[in-house]
Amino acid sequence: MNAGIRHQSMNRAKFVLALLTLFGVGALLYRRQHPHLPCPSSLSFLLENPFMNRVAGSHLLLERATVQPGMRVLDVGCGPGRITLPAALRVGETGEVVALDIQPAMLERVQKKLTEQHVTNVKLLEAGIGEGRTEANTFDRVFLVTVLGEIPDKVAALREIYRALKPGGILSITEVLPDPDYQTPGAIRAMAAETGFVIESQMGSFPAFTMNLLKPALSLGQGS
Ligand SMILES: C[S@@+](CC[C@H](N)C(=O)[O-])C[C@H]1O[C@@H](n2cnc3c(N)ncnc32)[C@H](O)[C@@H]1O
Questions:
Q1: C-alpha count within 13 angstroms, C-beta hemisphere, residue 187
Q2: What is the tens place of the pLDDT at every residue in 187-199?
Q3: Which domains does the chain have, with CATH numbers?
Q4: 148 CA → ligand 1 middle, Å
Q5: pLDDT band at 18 (very low <50, low <70, confident <90, very high)
Q6: Is 151 in the pocket of ligand 1 (CB under 6 A)?
Q7: Average pLDDT for 53-68
Q8: Which atom in ligand 1 lies closest to the alpha carbon of residue 47?
Q9: Is residue 148 within 6 Å of ligand 1 at its C-beta?
């Protein structure tokens, strides 16, 4: 490797490290002051940045969840719509995305993007997951991307998602460090066992991984 290329790669690494530090420090400061509140819409830049695009970008996550045209997708804790809009384009006119978030300000951001980009196959749902506001047996895929740790009753949330999925449907969970609410693969496996999900696959690495949980096609559990 010549000196110019080495210099360029070092600069890129420093840039990614600086973003990572910014992300971590911002999130930790916020979490210390507001231990029980969801990530506010004013901190959306912590989600929509080159670091997140690199380790948990929307196209990577859509691939990992095997989202196909015509599917019905639920984006739980959609935030500013980082996954929602690319998912809507992927499922196309014959599919639909429901973007659910507990914060109206996040849904307003999503609505603005939908209007600007003329996307018409997304429904917004203001709700806390676990409150039972989603329809049963209607979704092919559900996303929970850096959300699980913010939910007070995680098992109730997973039970609602299990009920909302069609048999054979997949819940795709992504966790990224240094999110202060990061959930480990072990913690997710334990919750999956408690709620009837079967672990289908795990991708990525410990600091930024996706775990796909399957609602078995012949489900004897709740909501089947
Ligand atoms: C860190 S953001 C992640 C946003 C998006 N999934 C992404 O990866 O860009 C977490 C989001 O989950 C939402 N949230 C937190 N608790 C929730 C709950 N109980 N039900 C629904 N949404 C929730 C927050 O309002 C916030 O928009």
A1: 12
A2: 999 999 999 999 9
A3: 3-214 (3.40.50.150)
A4: 8
A5: low
A6: yes
A7: 94
A8: 9
A9: no
- Choice among 18-27, 61-70, 127-136 with the minimum mean pLDDT: 18-27
State in Å: Cα 79 to ligand 1 middle: 5
Number of neighbouring beta carbons within 10 Å of residue 18: 11
Kindly give the number of the ligand 1 atom that is closest to the alpha carbon of 103. 25
C-alpha distances in Å from residue 176, one per residue of 124, 166, 219: 25, 27, 30
State the Rg of the chain over Cα. Answer: 18
- In sequence order, the 6+-apart residues with CB closer than 8 A to the CB of 82 are 47, 48, 52, 58, 145
**pLDDT digits over 97-152, tens only?**
999 999 999 999 999 999 999 999 999 999 999 999 999 999 999 999 999 999 99
Tell whether the model's pLDDT for residue 89 goes beyond 80.
yes
How many angstroms is it from 207 CA to the middle of ligand 1? 19
Distances (CA, A) of 149 to 12, 83, 188: 30, 18, 10
The first and second tokens of residue 101, run together, are 């978030």
**Rounded-to-integer distance, Cα 153 and Cα 145, Å:** 16
